[in-house]
Structure formats: structure tokens, C-alpha cells
Design a protein that fits this description.
Helix content: 25-40%
Number of domains: 1
Order of helices and strands: HHHHHEEEEEEEHEEEEEEE
Strand order of the largest sheet: 1-5-4-9-10-11
CATH class: Mainly Beta
Structural class: alpha/beta
CATH architecture: Sandwich
CATH superfamily: Aromatic compound dioxygenase
Radius of gyration: 20 Å
Mean pLDDT: 95
Number of helices: 6
Bound molecules: 3,4-dihydroxybenzoic acid, fe (iii) ion
């Protein structure tokens, strides 16, 4: 970043994440939920809250502090950030019970659809002076029978070397470090990018304030986000992490899995190269 650029704010990324979530759910990303499920699950959540109050003898001032904080989460547009950091990994864990093939991970709040389509060997859209260690990420998409899946789409998005996502931070061009790579007739891909930085929950908003107040480190390890899809196959939502990376064992979002860790090696040309093969199961 140059000094003329301004730093992202929690309110800025929160508002963008909320707007992006509303767009996605309007396009069918959020299903209607039946009344008896609402009753069952909402009651269980409330009972959990009641139990916490009794167990920990919560006082009126503490209750009012919680109310104030909840109002601020809403006003700051931080519900997508908060829920994806603290809750989504358990929803993913439940979904994973019926999932074969490559392990999944959380979607998070920063996915944007309709990015540039790229051939199997491609460079992610990036600024001419994009900071960060050059990284070649390559592999193959196969089905559960071991056959290559030609024409599979890897919808890839990542933070930059400062830990910021295009579309959610000022001064990063739209589509930066985002793209849809299409596998070749052997199901292979090779994408050139830069190694992302760890991600810090914005500390100037209510989610970050909670972390600081509670003494929780507001960090996620560096990661690549991926949706992997092909006709006739169940889409995978996942993330890939980096061996030895900071926060790998202390992800605030609890979304790492040992099967999802890349081990990049330095190539002769000085660039890092990481390989990962994906396995898609048949559509349910
Ligand atoms: C959040 C941000 C991420 O980049 C991610 O992968 C998951 C969650 C968040 O701030 O909620
Ligand atoms: Fe992320």
C-alpha cells in the first residue's frame, strides 16, 4: 500500500459483506425455513442463552452491555463477519457428515460471484505491482472413481499480502485476486498468484472489540478460498492453508483441517509452488 491509500474499516467491510450477503440470498442462497424447525432451533438457541445466564450468574449491567454490543453488530453490518467467524464452522461440520471427496471449509463473508473466467493455465487478475511472494498453485480435479474432470471450475478468491479482499476494502481494484479457472481435458490447472497474508478481523468494529475484550487473538491463518464445481458433481466449498503459517493452529474461525494444508516448495525460478488435487463426489 502507498501512503495515499486509506485503511479499510470494519464499518466499510461490514457494510459491503452485508450487502453482498443480501444479494446472494436474494438469488437463492438462503432457503425458507419451516415453522417447526424455526421453533425447535430458535428454542434451543434461547435455552443455551438462558443456561449461560444461570450458570454464570449474569447481572443486569452485563445483560445491558450485551444488548448494546448486539445493536452495534447490526448497525456496523457485522453479522456476516461475526457469524462466519464464530458459527459457520459448525454448520460446515454438520454438512460434512454426508460429504465425500475433498474436505470442505467455511465460505466466509467475502465471496463474490461472476468473476473473470480463466483458462487452465492462468494468472489471477492482480495489480501490476501486487505485493507478496509469487505462488504457483497447481493440481488436478478428479471424481471419486479417480477419473479426471475436464472443464471443472475452480472459483478462487483470496486476500492480498496485507490480508485484504477486493470488493471489501478501499483502493483494491474490483476482481483483484479473484477468478474462475477452468480445468483442461486432463482435469488439470495451474494458476499463478501471490501468497496471501493472514487475515485479521477488523479490530475497530464490535466483533474485533469483543475479541480484544475477551483476550482472543482476532486472526485467521493465510488461506486460499475455493468453490470447485462441475456439472453432475456436488460443489465443494473449501479453503487451503499454508504449512508452518502463523495462526494455523489458532484460527479464530476454527475452520482449518489437516487435510487442507498446502506445503509450497521453492522452485528453481524462485517462485513458490504448491500442488493440490481435488476429488468431487457425484451430485446427490
Ligand atoms: C471471515 C473472514 C474470512 O476471510 C474468512 O475466510 C472467514 C471469515 C470473517 O471476517 O468473518
Ligand atoms: Fe477468508
Amino acid at each position: 500500500m502507498t501512503t495515499t491509500e486509506h485503511k479499510p474499516t470494519a464499518a466499510g467491510s461490514g457494510a459491503s459483506a452485508t450487502e453482498s450477503f443480501r444479494r446472494a440470498s436474494a438469488q437463492g442462497g438462503a432457503a425458507g425455513v419451516e415453522a417447526d424447525r424455526i421453533s425447535t432451533v430458535a428454542r434451543a438457541v434461547l435455552e443455551g442463552v438462558h443456561a449461560a445466564i444461570r450458570t454464570h450468574q449474569v447481572t443486569y449491567p452485563e445483560f445491558q452491555a450485551a444488548k448494546k454490543w448486539l445493536i452495534e453488530v447490526g448497525e456496523g453490518g457485522e453479522w456476516p463477519l461475526f457469524l462466519d467467524v464464530f458459527v459457520e464452522h459448525v454448520v460446515e461440520e454438520v454438512a460434512a457428515r454426508t460429504q465425500q471427496g475433498t474436505k470442505g471449509s467455511i465460505l466466509g463473508p467475502y465471496y463474490l460471484p461472476d468473476q473473470q473466467r480463466l483458462p487452465s493455465a492462468a494468472t489471477l487478475p492482480m495489480r501490476p505491482d501486487e505485493a507478496g511472494a509469487p505462488l504457483v498453485f497447481a493440481g488436478q480435479v478428479c471424481d471419486t472413481a479417480g477419473d479426471p474432470v475436464a472443464g471443472a471450475e475452480l472459483d478462487l478468491w483470496q486476500a492480498d499480502e496485507q490480508g485484504y479482499y477486493s470488493g471489501f476494502a478501499p483502493d483494491i481494484p474490483d476482481g483483484n485476486l479473484r477468478g474462475v479457472i477452468v480445468t483442461d481435458d486432463q482435469g488439470r490447472f495451474e494458476v499463478t498468484t501471490v501468497r496471501p497474508a493472514p487475515y485479521q478481523i477488523p479490530t475497530d468494529g464490535p466483533t474485533g472489540t469483543l475479541c480484544v475484550a475477551a483476550g482472543w487473538e482476532p486472526w485467521r491463518p493465510a488461506h486460499l478460498h475455493l468453490l470447485v464445481r462441475a456439472p453432475g458433481h456436488r460443489q465443494i466449498t473449501t479453503q487451503l492453508y499454508f504449512q508452518g503459517g502463523e495462526w494455523l493452529d489458532a484460527d479464530i474461525a476454527g475452520a482449518t483441517k489437516p487435510e487442507l494444508v498446502l506445503d509450497p516448495q521453492q522452485q528453481a525460478d524462485g517462485r513458490l509452488r504448491a500442488e493440490y488435487d481435488f476429488v468431487l463426489e457425484p451430485a446427490p
